Amino acid sequence: MPQTITQTSTTLSNQLQVPLNNVDFVDDLTVKGPFQALLNNDYRLARAAFSTVPNISMSSFNGTTITVDPFTDLLLAESNTTITTSNLLYGQNSGVTIGTSNLEVGINYVADTVYYIYATYSVLNCTFQISTVAPDANKQFKTGDITKRFLGMFITTAIATIFNFSCVGRRYLGNIPSVLTLDTTNVLLTQTIDFSYPLVFKNVTLKLNVFTQEPTTSNVTMKPGVAASTTTTYNFPFRQPTGASTTPVVFIQPIPLLNNSVSLTLTSGGSVGTAGPINVFVVTTGWEL
Fold first, then answer.
1. What are the C-alpha distances in Å from 154 to residues 105, 151, 175?
2. What is the torsional sign of CA 50, 51, 57, 59?
3. Residues 229, 257: Cα–Cα separation, whole Å
4. Which pTM was predicted?
């Protein structure tokens, strides 16, 4: 609310209401109408500007560092109180390499962890922070801190290195592998696995490399959500009539996520003991935030 300045015999002859900095719109009657409308519009434009997705390119191919390419016009908030017209419009003319020295906590990456990259205002400059704290629901800022502008994310491997990726804005290309095996020489004729992704993911692109000794037509089924969901499925039949295959059957499918999950079911068309295992190497090759 606006702060009230009360007159005294030695100061003001009238009572004024002054807009509180970083909180109120310029609605005080002491501000002339045209200026009030102009300044209110500036506030609204500043807020709207933060809703645009930063079109920044980043990549990592060495397992340890991330390269942030040059960019222009990145809007950063100076105050964590609210979004105002007092912000830094920052541009970077050369690429910057960030890594473990930018970690919010710790000095090394942790295995199998999702990390988020933020840009922050620092004395007429831009610095970067790598944090395990996810962005807000709108994917604009670090949760609880609007001075940290959300730029992107990465995932670490089981040995605490970064999975390779490159991105422009919120669209990513990468290589996150998993394996789904169906051993038809034993007792399994159907195998289902649910793949979970970070909450910031909207959809993924999966590449399936199928190695099989199954001469009868078998099938891989994908669907958004976990196995129990009743969503639309994507079916990929395959067979290997000439014996064990050293060349995979390849399927590539973009698929939306449901509750940040995708379910894959591998079903053999044969019978137990008639063929060897079916191996499906599942690679997440792309994702969108």
1. 16, 11, 11
2. positive
3. 12
4. 0.77
Cα–Cα distance measured from residue 123 to residue 88, given in angstroms and rounded to the nearest whole number: 10
- Read off the tokens for 49: 């500007």
Give the Cα separation of 10 and 93 in Å (integer): 54
β-sheet bridge partners, residue 224: 262
Could you give the CA distance from residue 45 to residue 82 in angstroms, rounded to a whole number? 14
| Separation CA 27–CA 1 (nearest Å) | 11
pLDDT of the residue at 10: 52
Distance between CA atoms of 289 and 286, rounded to whole angstroms?
Answer: 10
Q: For residue 255, what are its two tokens?
A: 């698929």
Query: Could you give the CA distance from residue 261 to residue 284 in angstroms, rounded to a whole number?
Result: 12
Whole-number Cα distances in Å, 267 to 13, 181, 201, 252, 279: 86, 10, 28, 18, 11
Residue 38 three-state SS: helix
pLDDT in tens, 216-240: 888 888 889 887 777 778 888 887 7
